[in-house]
Write a structure and sequence with these properties.
By secondary structure, the protein is α/β, with parallel strands linked by helices. It is built from 14 helices and 13 strands.
Length: 441
């Protein structure tokens, strides 16, 4: 037998072995709610909103009720979820870049139609190219991956996905998801087709399901709106409640499809919300202390991990979890190491969870203030350590805001600032924040 034939045979052997290992790897499904308060689930105690499918997922998962996202704004938060990095690390610190200086006071419509502004948006997406992404990391292990729903960072391929719905072309409406935003609202077929494709090819898959739900526009099916109109006197609130149940129905469709395809037992399902939302009673808009805020209504979310046969389902109401933990958790499950820049932990490592001392976050402006300097957009930094939550304003953007300290176990809605009574706690936690991310001001 010639050396060439032997070499070819060896390559085929290695390739076959790689496929076999890939076939044994768990599938990964990441479900991301868009604009939903941490309280707004049946399993979290809401007495009106029905979320039977998410309730089921919570029962079958390791569910952290004290979960958090570092920032309460969708684009930075979503990028953290897929990179395992804080916004100031991955560099995406707002939804839209700054307009040209001469248009700073102009209406948004005029700013966004300016060619220079369009170029700024295109240039800003380059931040995502500079950091590892979960889909790309899984791709090194033979995974196929699919993007659907909210996605700000251009074409889905820039996120490392092999398949997806978002074209990302800014000249034809590619701001934050374009065609991907139809998922859930117009059915689940693109996701189902991708699961079919992956299983037919015998490859593990990663599904990123981040529907534009329950996000505005709050236009739920009439049958759901009629249900909730009888449960609240405020029509905008009824619409939001109905949107939450509509989102829940789509989650049920996805989970049921995993069962139907007989892949659920070898699939890690993870759940998180990108940021919170408290609906105003007079409009389909968010109230203070929710989205974009430093308070629990903006940054808190349940976090779930379901993996039958590997994860013992239980409700963890004690330990802290963060969206920075999702990537390290998946990487550990598939035999990959997290990068040195990732501060998150493996949520399936009970020792790491129990030994964690604190989690951190940063609240940033909606519009990016500087293309490369994250501090220019910083409003607040915060830390949670045990029962204490400290919020520190950044003088550069919040010169009149007070330092706030809350006992969030006794006061989960942060009604009582006790910073003046516990100067020693404030000093200790402030030092922790500075050790995490030191900024001037």
């Amino acid at each position: 037998m010639s050396n060439r034939v032997i070499a070819c045979a060896f390559v085929v052997f290695l390739f076959a072995g790689s496929l076999a290992r890939a076939a044994d790897q768990p599938n990964v499904v990441l479900i991301i709610s868009d604009d939903q308060a941490w309280t707004d689930y049946g399993f979290m105690g809401h007495d009106t909103i029905a979320t039977p499918h998410l309730d089921r997922l919570a029962r079958e998962s390791l569910t952290f009720t004290r979960g958090y996202v570092p920032d309460s704004l969708c684009r930075p938060s979503l990028t953290t979820i897929v990179t395992g990095l804080y916004p100031h690390q991955h560099g995406i610190v707002g939804n839209d870049p700054p307009p040209p200086a001469d248009l700073a006071g102009a209406p948004k419509s005029k700013q966004r139609s300016d060619p220079r502004y369009l170029q700024q948006r295109i240039d800003y997406i380059k931040h995502i190219d500079q950091v590892p992404k979960l889909a790309g990391l899984l791709g090194t292990q033979g995974y196929l991956s699919h993007q659907s729903g909210k996605w700000w960072e251009g074409n889905y391929r820039r996120g490392g996905f092999t398949h997806g719905m978002t074209h990302g072309e800014r000249t034809r409406g590619g701001r934050h998801g374009d065609q991907g935003l139809t998922i859930g609202r117009q059915g689940m077929q693109p996701v189902f087709d991708f699961i079919d494709l992956s299983t037919e090819q015998g490859k593990p898959f990663f599904v990123y399901y981040a529907p534009f739900l329950p996000h505005t526009p709050h236009n739920p099916p009439q049958r759901l709106l009629d249900k909730y109109k009888t449960k609240t006197p405020n029509l905008p609130v009824a619409k939001y409640y109905a949107m939450c149940e509509w989102f829940d129905e789509t989650v049920g469709e996805l989970i049921d499809y995993l069962d139907e395809k007989q892949v659920a037992d070898n699939t890690i399902v993870m759940y998180v919300t990108d940021n919170g939302w408290i609906n105003r009673t007079d409009a389909s808009a968010y109230a203070p202390r929710s989205k974009r805020s430093q308070y629990e209504g903006g940054v808190r979310t349940p976090i779930m991990v379901r993996w039958p046969g590997h994860v013992q389902p239980r409700l963890d109401e004690t330990h802290l979890a963060s969206s920075i933990d999702l990537v390290p958790t998946v990487l550990a499950a598939v035999g990959l190491k997290k990068t040195d820049a990732m501060d998150g932990i493996d949520l399936l490592d009970s020792q790491a969870v129990s030994q964690r001392n604190a989690i951190f976050g940063e609240i940033l402006e909606h519009d990016i203030q500087h293309m490369t300097d994250p501090v220019a957009s910083l409003r607040f930094r915060w830390v949670i350590d045990g029962k204490w939550k400290l919020i520190v304003p950044h003088a550069g953007r919040e010169p009149n805001a007070a330092v706030e300290l809350f006992d969030i176990l006794a006061d989960p809605h942060e009604a009582h600032n006790v910073a003046a009574k516990h100067a020693d706690v404030v000093s200790k936690l402030h030092a922790q924040i500075d050790a995490w991310w030191a900024v001037e001001g």
